[in-house]
Amino acid sequence: MDTSELIKEAKQGSAAAQKYLFDLMADKLLIVCRRYVKRPEDAEEIMLDGFYKFFKNLSSFTYQGEAALFVWIKKIMINECLMFLRRKNVFSIVSDSDAEDIPLEEEALNNLSAAEIFNLIIQLPVGYRTVFNLYEIEGMGHKEIAGLLGISEGTSKSQLSKSKILLQKMLLQKGIKYVKRKTK
Amino acid sequence: MSNGKQNNYENWKSKLDNLDSLPGENMPDKNEEWEKLYARLGGKKRSKKAVFYWAAAACILFALMIPSLYFKNNNHQLSNTQMKKNNIESDNYRIKNSSNKIIDKKDSALISRSALSANDQIKTEMTSPKKIKKNIYEKQMNLLRLPDTISTKNLLAETKSNSLSPIDTFSSLATSIPTKKKLKVVHINELGDPVEALPDIVRNTDKHSFQFKIASQGIYINPTIASNTPGVYYAIGHSLIVSSR
Question: What pTM was computed for the model?
Fold first, then answer.
């Protein structure tokens, strides 16, 4: 069935269409939620909350293609994750310090598989992880991130640089392990 | 160089976007997740469960309440109806019995004796005027009164035999039979003449007069003053005001 038709039916309250849309996007959106929230149970709950909001606000959505639909629902999910983290008061403990502009080792990341990249990201502390996700993956600016998380721009920058430093270390460790494994 | 970096960046990012399953973890059951979501959306599945549980709870409660309510109502109704029935039956029975007993031999003898004695009395008092007649009539009526003819022993036996109603049957019987009031017989001549018009002095004193004050000045309304002319008379201070009705 066409996605536009599914959206139409889902707007009319068709449970079958809604379930179809849910089945179509649930896995990917759960992974998105897991990138922000480490605990699987929390991520599942957030995903359900996101879908709930999606279906409730579907009437205001105008279908412009599958990509736009996914972007919209992904944005809902990210907002839900950020709300969850803000509720947990995660960002109040983030310290404001001088930020260094450290380049991301993209080549090293590129050599890794999707699962390895995912594991590296979720190992980052919550503040680092959130800013890294928003800046590097979602492509947001520091101002926007600061507004979303309720922190200063400087804090956002410092969190990003720290996350990159940590990732480098992790990549190095991974590289060492990889070399050790190869030499054996 | 920058293009290459962009490509690399997009590469690892697109890799992440294309990730379909969580590494080292099982994806949660979609159907279960959907059921949860559907319930939140106000769907039927959860509500069915909830309705079922509520219905079951209601049934259990109802089942528990039915016997207690039934017995309570039954007892109440039974007691009420039995009370009423017993009252009616006992009253009927008593009336029948009492009427029968009047015709009983003993009672009939009593009546005949009393009648005879009454006749004797009448004969002896025949010489006296109307008052004697009245006395005889009263005596006869007293003899014929029902409660006097029924013996208390019989009544007690009846109440004992009636196991259903522990009611004071005697009192109920007494209330059921209308009591006769003796009225004083007054001759029309004894009533005297109709009331004539009272003298003016009496009438005036019977009429009400009152006093009230307005702004510390006394106002009097005295109909005695106004006996001759119609209107209300107000005495304010030293002046007299007359207002026509």
Answer: 0.50
Distance from CA of B25 to the nearest CA of A (A): 10
Q: Does the ipTM exceed 0.85?
A: no
Torsion of the alpha carbons at A77, A80, A84 and A85, rounded to the nearest 10: 70
Q: What would the pLDDT profile of A141-167 be if each residue is shown by its tens digit?
A: 999 999 988 888 888 888 888 888 898
CB contact under 8 A, A19 and B34: yes
Residue of B nearest to A118 (CA): B16
Residue type, B241: I
Q: Which amino acid is at B196?
A: E
B130-144 helix and B105-124 helix, angle to the nearest 10 degrees? 170
Residue B182 φ/ψ, nearest 5 degrees: -85, 125
In contact, A49 and A97? CB cutoff 8 Å: no
> Tell me, what amino acid is at B87?
N
A136 contacts in B (CB within 8 Å)?
13
- Residue B39 Cα, gap to closest chain A Cα (Å): 10
Contact B169, B90 (CB under 8 A): yes
**Residue B170 token pair:** 């005697």
